[in-house]
Amino acid sequence: MSKRILVCSEAHYLNTGYGVMYKQILDRLHRDGYEVAEHATYGKISHLQNHKIPWKFYPNEPEGDDPEHSDYKSNILYQFGLYRFDKVVLHFKPDIVFGCRDIWMDEHIVNSPLSKYYTSILAPPIDSTPQPVNYLASYNKADYLMPLSDWGVEVMKSEIRKQNISLLGFGVDLDVFKPMDKVEIRKKWGLNPDAQIFGTVMRNQARKLYPALIKTFSRFLDEHPKQRNNTYLYLHAAYPDKRGWNLSELITEYGVHSNVICTYCCSVCNHKFIRQWSDAKTTCNNCGSIAGFHPNVLVGLSREELAEVYNIMDFYIQYSEKEGGGFPIVEAAACGVYTCAPPYTAMKSAVKNLDIFELDYIVRRSFNDQSDICTPNDKHLLTLMGSYRKLPYYRRYMSEEEYNIQWIEGALE
Fold first, then answer.
1. In the predicted model, is pLDDT for residue 404 greater than 80?
2. Which one is predicted more confidently, 188 or 172?
3. Does residue 28 have a pLDDT over 90?
4. What sign results for the dihedral spanned by CA atoms 109, 147, 359, 222?
């Protein structure tokens, strides 16, 4: 009889790094014959109408008109799964409970009074050091720890006394994320095949260094005036975001409005298109409605369309203070795009394993969480932007079949 595995996710169909990771893990476990259930913290009953889900699915969030919704909103931790977790465990009776998010989202897995009845496995996206003391206390309660990067494994082994720590690796589906005909893809999306396009795929968060990236791009245009009319920065990100940067103000401040392009989705006809930056809303070039918005975690591009976005770029830039996974780095490299990132936190693992360009950086202490973060060197990025085609560049692929799922075998012993 196969083991019953409860996977505590955000929801495998969301357009987030976590969503991608959970989709890969759930598909793999289901394909390998395990009895799998998903506790989707941002899942609703109504979502079942739009998604065909082959495994048991437990939504956590009540519908807006459900009498339970006011109770759900009464505790900020309920949205991360705490609201229905114990009920789900009692109903599904799992042998293993797995979580792959920040520990403050998954603490209920190890703190539940039912935890003695299942094996708990946490795969935290370790993105800083030192880890807060309260985080370490929760990690110690887990039966197994599986950080998402080699760097994360090193941090965990140095900061807590626990034997069951190993890597949960990740890769990409090379049938989707692969090199394509750049000229044809650009024509499909209405872009100049001969343009030079730098780009990034990063959620609009404080730790994503959009101000420095846009400023450095502006400096590149100033230093290469002959390329100004045919060089672009492609920002694939949600906007506005209450916890993110004001991208419109940054683009205006650095005078690059004519050279920034982005992705839009139409809420009327569902058309997806790329055009010059036009703030939070723009006119759809298909139906003419002023209904174009930036893709977000609920409404965005398919994985196939995202692969085309990477292929549109000449040079992918991950400009971030820290990363717990850094999925776009791996996806961009798999698409054959020149890729760079600072080799710090999980990005260090990606740079090492993929042999992509390393960005120089310095480490400093963050006031917000008292951990060490990195600041990439803008001058080094500027140099790479002007010379990447001339430099030696090696890249290997990390396929989906390289996933390290030995944690399953270990947990079953």
1. no
2. 188
3. no
4. negative
Count the neighbouring beta carbons within 10 Å of the beta carbon of residue 70.
Answer: 9
Bridge partners for 338 per DSSP:
315
| Token pair of 24 as six digits | 């890969």
Predicted local distance difference test score (pLDDT) of residue 355: 85
Residue pair 27/402 in contact by the 8 Å Cβ criterion? no
Q: How far is the C-alpha of 182 from the C-alpha of 311, rounded, in Å?
A: 6
- Among residues 314, 348, 316, the alpha carbon closest in space to that of 331 is found at 316
Q: What count of other Cβ atoms lies within 10 Å of the Cβ of residue 370?
A: 10
> What is the rounded distance in angstroms from the CA atom of residue 336 to the CA atom of residue 16?
22
Q: How far is CA 13 from the centre of its chain?
A: 13
Phi-psi region of 124 (alpha: psi -120 to 50; beta: other; left: phi over 0): beta
Average pLDDT, the chain: 92
pLDDT confidence of residue 402: 45
Give the bridge partners for 276, in sequence order: 261
CA atoms of 125 and 156, how far apart (whole Å): 11
CA pair distance 303, 319, nearest whole angstrom = 22
The share of the chain scoring above pLDDT 90, in percent, equals 77
Helix (H) or strand (E) holding 363: strand 361-365
CA–CA dist 153, 378 (Å, integer): 29
Q: Report whether 329 contacts 368 (CB < 8 A).
A: no
Cβ distance 315 to 199 under 8 Å?
yes
- Evaluate whether 107 touches 348 at the Cβ level (below 8 Å): no
CA-CA distances (angstroms) from residue 117 to 2, 95, 100? 17, 7, 20
Length of the chain: 413
pLDDT of 409 > 50? The answer is: no
Kindly indicate the confidence band of residue 213, based on its pLDDT and cuts at 50, 70 and 90.
Answer: very high
